[in-house]
Amino acid sequence: MNHAGEPTEPTGFARVGSVYYPTLVAVLTALVIISNVTATKGVEFGPIITDGGFLVFPLTYIIGDVLSEVYGFKAARRAVFLGFAMNALAALVFWVTLYLPAADFYENQAALEAVVHAYTQLIVAGLAGFLVGQTLNAWVVVKIKERTKEKHLWARLIGSSVVGQLGDTVVFCAIAASAIGINTFRDFAVYTALGWFYKTIVEIVILPVTYRVIGYIKRREPTYQPML
């Protein structure tokens, strides 16, 4: 509490009522919806088995890192819940559209059914995996920050990526594998291991970009208070 009896923000994080927080939440939500739609297609590069979500899904964890580092655990968790509320709405609209009377000239009903059924299963998988993964991701960032303060940002970002992506990938793949046609244990193991490895490596490779984004927002976010 301050002298006026009003609650003060914890040192080391910014308030969510700024222009940057809703923008980051909007980008996170869009990326999650896009990745869930594209994940309905299984993709194979020789021995490598994945899904179309690999194109943008790692970026959701970069946004999650930024939210956790700048705004804290509760704010990051709120963003995750909002993102999946919009995903649930998207799934509902897809189902309603699926059962609307088709026009005589519309010839893609079977294809739409296949995508919507797969998307719904992926929504469940994504909700479970993303909630587990992003919660672990945000928790690791905040816990390491409590020890390192403003130093060693790389340790927070890499540590949270390894732990968060592992939890997310195992949960997601266990539910989603059958939706994209993965039916053998070998394919499932490859799908899970390579998914975790790929997403973690992408986050590490893009670390300089994440550093710049976090630095940019910290410098321009008027409510951010460095953790001393």
The description of the largest β-sheet is:
2 strands, antiparallel
Beta-strand portion reads: under 5%
CATH topology: Arp2/3 complex 21 kDa subunit ARPC3
How many whole angstroms does the radius of gyration measure? Answer: 19 Å
Main sheet: strand order: 1-2
How do you describe this structure in short?
This protein is mostly helical and 228 residues long. It contains 7 helices and 2 strands, in the order H-E-E-H-H-H-H-H-H. It has a two-stranded antiparallel sheet.
Could you walk me through the main structural features you see in this protein, from its secondary elements to its overall organization?
The protein is mostly helical and 228 residues long. It has one domain (20-220): Arp2/3 complex 21 kDa subunit ARPC3 (Orthogonal Bundle), CATH 1.10.1760. It has seven helices and two strands; from the N terminus they run H-E-E-H-H-H-H-H-H. A two-stranded antiparallel sheet has the order 1-2. A hairpin with a 2-residue loop joins strand 1 (42-45) and strand 2. Helix 2 (57-71) packs antiparallel against helix 3 (73-99). The longest helix is centred in the middle third of the chain and has 40 residues, at 109-148.
Structural topology:
Blueprint: H1 20-38, E1 42-45, E2 48-51, H2 57-71, H3 73-99, H4 109-148, H5 153-176, H6 185-205, H7 207-220
Antiparallel strand pairs: 1-2
Helix pairs in contact: 1-2, 1-3, 2-3, 2-4, 2-6, 2-7, 3-4, 4-5, 5-6
Transmembrane segments: 19-39, 45-67, 79-102, 122-142, 154-182, 188-211
Pfam family, one: Vut_1
Membrane topology: Multi-pass membrane protein
